[in-house]
């Protein structure tokens, strides 16, 4: 289990109860182990962050980015956050909310291909 700030538990619950349309759509494609039988957790606290989706087996974080992520401050905060998560061995895939809403099949394919590559590293044929 990755370390997390226990003070973020309630905020994480609140975010799960107030998901964006993009998060809901992506969740519908990730839930119930639809991708390679992998479990994805939503609004998961890791360190001092709450990530949108987390798959521990693939060491993958998926972020659904709204407009606030595309300001200078947002881009810098995301860069620092991604760098910190990378130090834990996590890969962060970021998708724009509009990309998820308009091209969900393409987004899911990127996630699928990444997970396939990661799990095949652990159990070569």
Automatic annotation (TrEMBL):
One Pfam match: DUF559
Boundaries of every DUF559 domain copy: 7-114
Family annotation (InterPro entries): DUF559, Endonuclease_DUF559_bact, Restrct_endonuc-II-like
Protein name, as recorded: DUF559 domain-containing protein
């Amino acid at each position: 289990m990755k370390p997390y700030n226990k003070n973020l538990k309630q905020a994480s619950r609140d975010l799960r109860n107030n998901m964006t349309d993009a998060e809901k759509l992506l969740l519908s494609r990730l839930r119930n182990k639809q991708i390679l039988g992998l479990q994805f957790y939503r609004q998961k606290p890791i360190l001092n962050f709450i990530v949108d989706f987390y798959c521990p087996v693939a060491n993958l974080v998926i972020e659904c980015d709204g407009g606030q992520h595309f300001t200078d401050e947002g881009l810098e905060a995301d860069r620092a956050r991604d760098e910190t998560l990378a130090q834990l061995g996590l890969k962060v895939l970021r998708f724009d909310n509009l990309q998820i809403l308009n091209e969900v099949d393409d987004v899911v394919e990127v996630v699928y291909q990444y997970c396939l590559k990661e799990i095949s590293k652990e159990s070569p044929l």
